[in-house]
Amino acid sequence: MKNMSVKKKRNGPIMFPKATLERLKMYHALLQEEKSEYISSEEIARKLSIKPEQVRKDISYLDYSGKPKVGYHISSLVDALDELFGTKLRDNIIIIGAGHLGKALANYKGFVNFGIRVVAIFDNDPEKLGTYVGELVVLPLKDLDRVIRRFNVKIGTICVPGESAQKTVDLLIKKGIKAIWNFAPVILEVPENILVENMDIARSVLTLKHLLDRTPTGKIR
Amino acid sequence: MKNMSVKKKRNGPIMFPKATLERLKMYHALLQEEKSEYISSEEIARKLSIKPEQVRKDISYLDYSGKPKVGYHISSLVDALDELFGTKLRDNIIIIGAGHLGKALANYKGFVNFGIRVVAIFDNDPEKLGTYVGELVVLPLKDLDRVIRRFNVKIGTICVPGESAQKTVDLLIKKGIKAIWNFAPVILEVPENILVENMDIARSVLTLKHLLDRTPTGKIR
To answer: Is the pTM of this model over 0.90?
Structure first.
């Protein structure tokens, strides 16, 4: 879990708190859908239920300067966000675990917009090996080496059950993977130079459960 | 997108920033796996790559008091987190969209630990209606009313494509849904009294792409 990140800038690195990166991703999602040419910080803030000052502060980190009177030029701002996230650089990723979630990710068509290509999906279940997931054949873990080198893979996606996640991650790191995209609902231990992004999908519903205000009987008000 | 939440306390509400809630969910994930009886804030911090002061501050919000010398009593701390997130209260949820992701969620066995039961999955594709997803039959949207009332459903899960997400959400709200668990990669507009938790799964990989430090040629250092 990395809470800070570094952006290269001519005058040295800028540190991004994780929360800032999360908001910048939301701006990216919002602005890609916008049809108009300009947008104000107030409008972004209203649509995302955050404060306009926060929006202006976040965007001030980017390699972009808005015009105070007319607002942000949307396509330029999207360009700046694309650069920040490297969406124009292609990363080949692999998926470990050909269960429901692994298959769902392997079949996701939108990755192309983020510069992501899924080049292989792996599993150790003999019944799954050789079956097709979209256009990919499920491969055994012994093929990891070959695939990682052939496609210069840096990002490994963990879609195995929680109990086998750590040993899968240890193996990936040994094989040269630099960044772990973790969908298993467990906390992983990795060396300091390895990046981890946790997507504990199911646990995310707990925010809604917490926020649903209830009476002591468990009934919602 | 709610950035603040309210916890009921005898002496009035406590506001949780979204980042705090996210860390509390990580503690929940970590502590559920721990085998020992006590854990220190330093150890939690080390395993999650955050600061011990942050851990102590976050946990001070909970209805729990640790013993400074021996650390936190793990099972009591899990209990406090369970109470915060309402994992012992059962919420019946519905899933809209029986594509790969919707099916993956409907089949997820771990929800029971979070007090979540998926009671129905919906789609408007005639080819999917009547097919089985685990033990659930895919239902048409015209059955929404009946299911929401029958199972007192408050949380609706959006697994439809981005372009139909907003109109699906509008429909759910009209039918009485109070909280939206959104897996569509778009920003939704909802009335103020409706909760939204966004899980833009694919976009989460952008954090890793951003953090993978590259030379100007796109090669990783």
So the answer is: no
Beta-strand pair A179-182/A14-17 = unpaired
Under-50 pLDDT residues of chain B: 1-12, 216-218, 221
pLDDT tens for each residue of A154-202: 999 999 999 999 999 999 999 999 999 999 999 999 999 999 999 999 9
Question: What rounded mean pLDDT belongs to chain A?
Answer: 89
Under 8 Å CB-to-CB from A164, ≥6 apart: which residues?
none
The confidence score (pLDDT) of residue B64 equals 86
Specify the pLDDT at position B42. 94
Which of B24, B187, B213, B214 to mutate: most A Cβ within 10 Å? Answer: B187
How are the residues of chain A apportioned to helix, strand and coil, as percentages rounded to the nearest 5? 40, 20, 40
Interface membership of A108 toward B (CB under 8 Å): yes
CB pairs under 8 A between A and B: 216
- Name beta bridge partners: B38: B73
Q: B74-85 and B18-33 helices cross at what angle (nearest 10)?
A: 140
Q: What is the DSSP letter of A136?
A: E
Beta strands in chain B (DSSP E): 4-7, 14-17, 38-39, 72-73, 91-96, 116-122, 132-133, 136-139, 155-158, 179-182, 195-198
User: Contact, B48 vs B30, CB < 8 A?
Assistant: yes
State phi, psi for A213 to the nearest 5 degrees: -70, 130
In this complex, the residue of B1, B25, B155 whose CB is nearest that of residue A200 is B25
Residue B35 to residue B41: CA distance in whole angstroms: 16
Q: Using an 8 Å Cβ cutoff, are B88 and B115 in contact?
A: yes
Output DSSP code: residue B220. Answer: B
Residue numbers of B between 23 and 82 with CB closer than 8 Å to A: 25-26, 28-30, 33, 47-50
